[in-house]
Amino acid sequence: MQELDIYTDGACRGNPGPGGWGALLISGGHERELSGAESATTNNRMELLAVIEALRALKRRVRARVFTDSQYVQLGITAWLADWKARGWRTAARKPVKNQDLWEQLEALAAGHEIAWHWVKGHAGNPGNERCDRLANAAIDALLGVESR
Fold first, then answer.
1. CATH: 3.50.50.60, 3.30.420.10, 3.30.700.20, 1.10.150.530. Which one for 2-144?
2. d(CA 36, CA 19)
3. pLDDT tens column, 15-64
4. Quick check: is 133 catalytic?
5. How many other CB atoms are there within 10 angstroms of residue 134's CB atom?
6. Given 9, 19, 36, 128, the catalytic residue
């Protein structure tokens, strides 16, 4: 089974506002960058979309280590998701779970793989995380028609 590392990050200018996501897939010396942007979104949606699009890009079952600086993503998929579903997609406070559509997509995509979910501190010098942050922000810049910073 192929093993790979996946780094992801999302960014948003305003929350909500224009947002972008970036993902980096690394396996056996090969790297693939992915990114995208939306004009009106939230940071959490971009964090989720980064992981979703990275997993969607996989052509076969893999063993992956996913690195995200979003505790929302890491805890959501590892600790909160089962409880949300058991409560009919409600939080512990009985409010509807935000981004249910994306959580459902992420759960379905992740089910086909062996994934270890890792949280990394954002903007703390992790090369994969920093690269994904640049990809996300470049995608926002392209969406807005401005030169990348």
1. 3.30.420.10
2. 9
3. 899 999 999 999 999 999 999 999 999 999 999 999 999 999 999 999 99
4. yes
5. 17
6. 9
